[in-house]
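User: Some background: our group keeps a shared notebook of sequences we're curious about, and every so often someone picks one and asks for a predicted structure to add to the entry. Today it's my turn. The entry only has the sequence so far, pasted here. Could you supply the structure so I can complete it?
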Amino acid sequence: MRLTTKELLYGALLTGLALLIPLAFQGWLQVTIPPFSATLASHLPTMLAMTISPWTAALVGAGSSLGFLLTLGPVVALRAAVHILFGVAGAWLYARDQTLWKALLLTLPIHALGETLVVLPFGFSFQQALLVIGLGTALHHLADGAITSAVFQALSKAGVRLDLSGKGTVNHL
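Assistant: Of course. Here's the predicted structure to add to the notebook entry:
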């Protein structure tokens, strides 16, 4: 499967946003409860990319990971790399006629468990990782899902269709 020109264009724009969020808003949109940190709306580009294609979601997830590597280091970058996994899974679900919200809810465990597992080699106990990183990620995923839904709905009402499947309507949230 190849990326279409539109998918690549949307992916590049969303990747730019995925890079901009940690680079430009470092400390500004961040919530830190050590060892957990979250940047509000950092999942928005990946979650929007889910409505385009799996390849686009993977591209945007990789861009997000790079942005966090440059600002917050390798542990947070590896956590952000999980965006690739849940983004691809969500795009696959969305393409199979799931609503955006259902795809977001079904990818929540992938996201939370993925971030829990990637911090284990860095000295976190499983309990600490699961309770702090996993639970924090799940809550962050839900918050960013609500933001994404609002943005997707606003774009749909404005006539901007990110998804290329024709499902980009307010009723398909």
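Suggested note for the entry: Residues 38 and 111 are 13 Å apart (CA to CA). The domain at 5-159 is CATH 1.10.1760.20 (Arp2/3 complex 21 kDa subunit ARPC3).
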